[in-house]
Amino acid sequence: xxxxxxxxxxxxxxxxxxxxxxxxxxxxxxxxxxxxxxxxxxxxxxxxxxxxxxxxxxxxxxxxxxxxxxxxxxxxxxxxxxxxxxxxxxxxxxxxxxxxxxxxxxxxxxxxxxxxxxxxxxxxxxxxxxxxxxxxxxxxxxxxxxxxxxxxxxxxxxxxxxxxxxxxxx
Length: 170
Ligand SMILES: Cc1cc2nc3c(=O)[nH]c(=O)nc-3n(C[C@H](O)[C@H](O)[C@H](O)COP(=O)(O)O)c2cc1C
Description:
Order of helices and strands: HHEHHEEEHEHEH
CATH class: Alpha Beta
Number of domains: 1
Distance between the termini: 36 Å
CATH architecture: 3-Layer(aba) Sandwich
Largest sheet: 4 strands, antiparallel
Oligomer: single chain
Bound molecules: flavin mononucleotide
Structural class: alpha+beta
């Protein structure tokens, strides 16, 4: 069992997948980790759409036309729901994206823990993705598509800013 730092270090954006089937219990585990994510006021303003069928997978590919993306055997699309999210009254800041992002990273870390590759994908065509998923794209909208599967590539060295560049101590 990896500790959190080891898990965070092990997660990387996998951009090549084998066609090995992903076991149902691993999918269930990942979804449970998403379900338990924290959210503002515990409003849980998200929907998770598991895309596994050949028909919907193929349709989704039109929303992000990268060859590597098409290799993934399944996708979890994390959607935000503005009708359920918390908005801070002082400045009307809607927290749906933040909440969805936390759940999305839970998914990626859980996938890593069970030996699966994953990648955040946000550079998709929102209108196409919403149509494929059957969501309106406005109240309920896609935040991230996460391809999941057995990775066929390997992590490279993490490039990150040094702590002294990003930390202010006051
Ligand atoms: C919000 C967000 C959106 C991203 N969108 C994409 C994307 O559309 N396509 C892609 O290949 N990678 C995408 N990435 C992955 C980043 O490029 C990657 O996390 C970053 O380069 C660090 O590499 P690592 O994940 O391997 O540590 C996204 C990551 C985040 C957090």
